[in-house]
Specification:
This protein is of the alpha+beta class and 298 residues long. It folds into two domains: 26-190, Beta-Lactamase; 193-297, Arc Repressor Mutant, subunit A (Orthogonal Bundle). 57% of the residues lie in helices and 13% in strands. The protein contains 14 helices and seven strands. The protein has a five-stranded antiparallel beta sheet. A two-stranded antiparallel sheet has the order 1-7. The longest helix is centred in the middle third of the chain and has 20 residues, at 165-184. The protein is elongated.
């Protein structure tokens, strides 16, 4: 989902914060399954899309874990160790906002990419379970020997696809292009974002007068309850608060860029007929009165 330029300025201006740990209602269109299936068929590599709460929403060709990974999780290391590493790498790539490639504790290659819609993290795309080495890590071999599964583990290891470093770099390059394509073509979207986009634009266009939930609902062709629910679900705050924050943010721009305007004139430009009410509202939400704010701008 792409916000329009003007609407995205609004979002940045209001500093809307979404709880990134909260699972979102993700819409995955059919094309993403075709992309994942072709990727898996071409390279023999597992590719997955995870939601923020760790649920696998899509996987290439419905492919299960490799035999090697099953052995690692059941006979060498605890399954939770693999999960912990995946979670750690997901957090890392989200912080860096880029794809990261790494060798896991079992000695095989993995890569994970954060999926952002604008600045909102919605999930992760991960591919892996292939090797770039002809040898298992000594620690893994030692544990396998102690547990009596060395031969079985080696056999399953050599069954994994092998790619040299140059080939891996090229696969990651292709994966990066696919992730960008998925985002720009809106193959992944968050339920309710189109409605939010349209409503934010409407608020910006009519910032100079009172804005009601009823008129916004009529403009969007939706019910009051659907508008209200979408704002709370996507933005984490009620419609009325979003309107107030938009107006007060605009007021801050007037105070900064047009200092000759009085507080009453700014209030009027934002649809408030009572300057005293506007001043109380400003102080309640900003923690400082308009007079004090204007004084700081001098």
């Amino acid at each position: 989902m792409q916000f329009s330029a003007n609407t995205w300025i609004i979002v940045q201006r209001w500093c809307i914060i979404v709880n990134m740990n909260k699972a979102l209602d993700i819409i995955l269109h059919d094309e993403i399954q075709n992309i994942f299936d072709n990727f898996t068929a071409s390279f023999g590599i597992n590719i997955l899309f995870y939601s923020l709460d760790g649920k696998i929403l899509r996987r290439g060709h419905g492919r299960a874990n490799s035999k090697f990974c099953e052995l690692i999780q059941n006979k060498i290391f605890d399954r939770n160790e693999c999960i912990s590493m995946d979670e750690s790498k997901c957090r890392e790539c989200a912080r860096q906002k880029e794809i990261i490639n790494y060798v896991c504790h079992a000695g095989i290659e993995e890569a994970v990419a954060p999926i952002f819609i604008e600045t909102q993290l919605v999930g992760y795309a991960m591919f892996g379970q292939f090797r770039s080495s002809q040898k298992l890590p000594p620690k893994v071999l030692k544990i396998a020997k102690e547990n009596g599964c060395q031969a079985e583990l080696l056999e399953s290891f050599y069954e994994l696809p092998y790619y040299n470093k140059i080939k891996i770099k090229n696969i990651i390059g292709l994966f990066t292009i696919l992730v960008d394509y998925i985002i720009t073509k809106e193959i992944i979207s968050v339920k309710g974002e189109r409605l939010i986009n349209k409503t934010l634009a409407y608020i910006e266009q009519h910032i100079d007068r009172p804005i009601t939930l009823d008129e916004v609902a009529r403009n969007a062709g939706r019910s009051r309850s659907s508008i209200s629910h979408s704002f709370k679900k996507i933005l984490g705050k009620p419609f009325s608060k979003v309107v107030i924050e938009a107006k007060l943010s605009k007021a801050g721009e007037y105070f900064k860029n047009a200092p000759h305007l009085s507080i009453g004139e700014v209030a009027f430009k934002l649809g408030y007929k009572d300057p005293l009410y506007f001043s109380r509202l400003y102080k309640k939400h900003k923690g400082i009165s308009p007079t004090e704010y204007k004084g700081h701008q001098k």
